[in-house]
Amino acid sequence: MIPLFAVLLPAILILCGVAINIAYMQLTRTELKIASDAAARAAGRGLSEFQDVDAAIALAQSTAALNEVAGQPLTLDDDQVTFGLATRTNGGYGRYSFTPKNTNAVRNKTDKATAVRIFARRDNGSNEGAVRLLIAGVGPFNDFQPTNAAISTQVDRDIALILDRSGSMAESTIDWSQHYSYEWVWSGRRWRQVVVWDDPDMEDAYNDWYDGYVDWYYGGDGAPPNSRWEALTIAVNAFVDVLDNTDQEELVSVATFSTSV
Predict the structure, then answer these.
(1) pTM (2 d.p.)
(2) Which among 123, 155, 187 is the end of a domain?
(3) Same domain for 14 and 140?
(4) What is the pLDDT of residues 217-250, one digit of tens each?
(5) Where are the beta strands (DSSP E) in the chain?
(6) Do the Cβ atoms of 136 and 142 come closer than 8 Å?
(7) Do residues 129 and 239 both lie within one domain?
(8) What's the first-to-final CA gap in the chain, in angstroms?
């Protein structure tokens, strides 16, 4: 029995070493996947929020460094962050397909990107080098070189604008009461109260708004100047201008509500 055990012991130790190394390799691959997924998510968020390539790369690198792979923070070079377009196959019902774009073209706004791909690696060419096995010398390998690619896609947004079209939208955006006061003036027969404006320009603006309000109320003309309608028009136009400058193709719908119209 003892001779048999002596013969089998080396084989058992080798198998144990192989099992430990395989488990360590799987753990390292999982850590690399988590780190690359987190970096891709951060880069995609940065690209969507800031519409800036360098901000997206910086977020990817800082997020990757927060995650350890084989006991070391993962570092990413700039060329490990790729920008591109993500489109769905099979008429929009299939998987997303990633088409890489030139980073400088995306940076200079001469091309668009809706996705970010992170290529994370721990090989001989990476900053940290290949991963050493826990038990070296078991088998022909002393290290291994895992890699992982992760893609974050910013899908086209569906946006709904809910707009108020009640009669109060014709009211002025200016609080006129802050620009005038009342004075009592003797009219020759009695005292009467008159409005005194702090600034003649504000008085002219009020008269323009009031005339426009009367025309709107009785004649159905366009919104008065300095009204909430006018401010809303400016805001919606500015919002649409921002959407025109994003890389995503947003779909915008409009719904309105009213309590008096």
Answers:
(1) 0.65
(2) 155
(3) yes
(4) 777 677 777 888 888 988 999 998 888 887 777 7
(5) 68-69, 72-73, 81-88, 96-100, 115-121, 131-132, 143-144, 147-153, 158-164, 180-186, 191-197, 251-257
(6) yes
(7) no
(8) 99
